[in-house]
Amino acid sequence: MTPEPPRDCPLCPRLVAYRAENAAQHPEWWNGPAPSFGDPEARVLVVGLAPGRTGANRTGRPFTGDGAGVILYETLLKTGFATGRYEARPDDGLTLIDCMITNAVRCAPPLNKPLPIEEATCRPFLIDRLAALPRLKVIVTLGDISRKNVLKALGLPASAAPAGHGVEAPVGPYVLLNSYHCSRLNTNTGRLTPAMFEAIFQRARALIAGTR
Ligand code: SF4
């Protein structure tokens, strides 16, 4: 495996069929595995669950073009993990600093819900993504399924880093820092406020302070 799947990765039949369905309806969309985005020397890796159909599946950049991306990129800009302007398109020139964004499952699933077998099938790419970041210190997981996928990728049980917003735990050579997912559902209902989300990245900043 490699950290990034090929554009035509054939490994998950249901997701391949969904890509083809979307490509038939919207040939101008990306309709492939969303590549990780950011700094290859990142000390902070943000791990989402899977691309949204009209987000990364459309634009080809994680969280770009969907509601969750607005708060994610604005928060990264505010906390110094990004520079430029987020304009919801992959050519907006936004650059991540010391940060990378990836997804546990790289292809958009129907109804935003990957199957456990699809999480398992895509996991080798996550394992290699982690391994390919030589300076990685902090893994920010967005939501509980992301948390579990990262722990599995590290060969650890779900109990190795408990659930909950702001909960952190050492996992191998890294610190896992868990956040509620920045979905529109969570932000619209106030389950996740901008201040709560910003605090996650301020904490990530504190955790990497003094590391190289
Ligand atoms: S989800 Fe991952 S393993 Fe499955 S087809 Fe997409 S890139 Fe390949």
Written account of the structure:
Helix 3 packs across helix 7 (194-208) and helix 4 (116-131) crosses helix 5. The protein has 212 residues and is an alpha/beta fold. The strands form 2 sheets. The protein has a 6-stranded mixed β-sheet with strand order 1-5-2-6-8-7, with helices on both faces. The protein has helices at residues 13-25, 56-59, 67-78, 116-131, 144-153, 184-188, 194-208, and strands at 37-38, 44-48, 82-83, 95-96, 99-103, 138-142, 168-171, 174-179. It has a single domain (13-208), classed as 3-Layer(aba) Sandwich (Uracil-DNA Glycosylase, subunit E), CATH 3.40.470. The structure holds iron/sulfur cluster. Iron/sulfur cluster binds next to helix 1 and helix 4.
Bound molecules: iron/sulfur cluster
**Assembly level:** single chain
Low-pLDDT sequence parts: none
Question: Largest sheet, order of strands side by side?
Answer: 1-5-2-6-8-7
Sheet with most strands: 6 strands, mixed
By helix and strand content, what is the structural category?
Answer: alpha/beta
Q: Superfamily at the CATH H level? A: Uracil-DNA glycosylase-like domain
Which band does the percent of strand residues land in? 5-15%
Secondary-structure element string: HEEHHEEEHEHEEHH
> Remind me, CATH topology?
Uracil-DNA Glycosylase, subunit E
CATH class: Alpha Beta
- Percent helix range: 25-40%
3D shape: globular
Give average pLDDT, whole number: 97
- Number of DSSP helical runs: 7
